[in-house]
Known about the structure:
The chain is mainly α. It has a domain at about 1-35. It has three helices and no strands. It has helices spanning about 1-35, 45-55, 80-95. The radius of gyration is 29 Å and the shape is flat. It starts with a helix and ends in an 11-residue tail after the last helix. InterPro entries: Phage_Syn9_Gp224 (IPR021355). Keywords: Membrane, Transmembrane, Transmembrane helix. This is DUF2973 domain-containing protein. Pfam families: DUF2973.
Amino acid sequence: xxxxxxxxxxxxxxxxxxxxxxxxxxxxxxxxxxxxxxxxxxxxxxxxxxxxxxxxxxxxxxxxxxxxxxxxxxxxxxxxxxxxxxxxxxxxxxxxxxxxxxxx
Length: 104
């Protein structure tokens, strides 16, 4: 009888947890679609907020301060052997690499 009580209690708790999870996911999706207006406080923070929005991240600027409009990361696919050779070359050129061979 006690086993059935445990199973019933666990089932009720599991249903509550799943219902809470679903409710939270739905609420997050609604909050994500909602646009919140920017409130201006009378403390003088409005100038700081407007300046913060207009300045891009420093990594998006070139040395002259102009915005970079080209891709920042270009990846090409290589096969495993080429990648292994490049990594071996980097490892052998590293300052901590010893020149003696440790082959078994």
